[in-house]
Write a structure and sequence with these properties.
4 helices; 15 strands; alpha+beta; seven-stranded mixed sheet; about 20% helix; single chain; about 290 residues; six-stranded antiparallel β-barrel
Length: about 290
């Protein structure tokens, strides 16, 4: 009976450790501060939750009747939405600002639309010639995001853009701008997911075929990542007391099996990964998207 009890305690201890974060992926709290919009030499300061004026210029045709008010929620929310989807960032409200590691300010530097009108010589089914006119709309939006480390005062600024191609299916300048703002939000979280990547230990080999590893398990799961996230695989070593990393392959999450475990498919380097397993090397993975 005592022996069974000790076995049970050991199993529970192992489960407790495995359920914990691997310690490699701290989540940083960020507080969103002021947003400014700059058009040319003019700069208008606004606060999150207040009006953010946006002017849409059209390069050809000079469309000037665009309702600026329509872009207020999009221009503000594209920043908050983008940051909210970053895996290792947590946007906090103002009353939690004292717990934040970073204060993030944003300056909208560009929201412009373009219109091109082109004519094409055509022939109908009876061979009669006619001219077809098509109008194409495009847009670009850009924001400069500044992270201020509230402990050290260090500032880091990155400029991120979203685009809508002139040859997209946008039927108006309004639609093109909205599409570009949507892409801006996506590019914000993709960029900062690369700046703050997820790191994982490779904890177990899975399916193997001949001299190659086909599948393996990592110690991050649904609490941080989802399916189809890609990682680069490294062998970790030590030289003169410093960590070294050598890339040996690439993997993709096939299925999250829990909050801290995922099954991955090896996409590249199966032979090298198996050799590293066989040698007992320490193997880690770092997300790339």
């Amino acid at each position: 009976m005592k022996k069974n009890l000790f076995v049970l305690i050991a199993i529970l201890a192992c489960l407790s450790v495995s359920a914990q974060d691997n310690g490699l992926n701290p989540v940083y709290k960020v507080q969103l501060g002021d947003i400014t919009y700059q058009k040319g030499e003019a700069s208008k300061k606004v606060t999150v939750g207040k009006v953010l004026g946006v002017i849409a210029d059209v390069a050809e045709g000079r469309v000037t009747d665009i309702n600026n008010e329509e872009y207020i929620p999009l221009a503000k929310n594209c920043v908050t939405t983008g940051l909210t989807h970053v895996r290792r960032l947590q946007v906090v409200e103002d009353d939690e600002g004292e717990t934040a590691k970073y204060l993030v300010t944003a300056q909208i530097t560009d929201i412009t639309a373009s219109r091109k009108v082109k004519t094409y010589d055509r022939k109908d089914s009876k061979g009669r010639e006619y001219t077809e006119t098509k109008t194409y709309y495009g847009a670009i939006t850009s924001v400069a995001l500044t992270f201020k480390n509230l402990q050290t005062g260090e500032l880091t600024t990155s400029t991120i853009s979203g685009r809508c191609s002139e040859y997209s299916l946008a039927g108006s300048a309004d639609e093109a701008i909205r599409t570009a703002l949507g892409e801006l939000a996506e590019n914000i979280y993709e960029y900062y997911n690369e700046v703050y990547p997820v790191r994982a230990n490779i904890i177990e080999r899975g399916t193997e075929k001949k001299d190659k590893t086909k599948e393996l398990y990592i110690d991050v799961g649904s609490s941080l990542v989802g399916e189809d996230v890609h990682f680069e695989v490294y062998v970790v070593g030590q030289v003169a007391g410093r960590e070294t990393r050598k890339q040996i392959g690439k993997i993709r999450i096939r299925e999250t099996l829990g909050s801290d475990i995922s099954l991955c498919k090896v996409q590249k380097g199966g032979k090298e990964i198996k050799a590293a397993f066989d040698r007992g090397d320490a193997i880690v993975a770092i997300s790339t998207d």
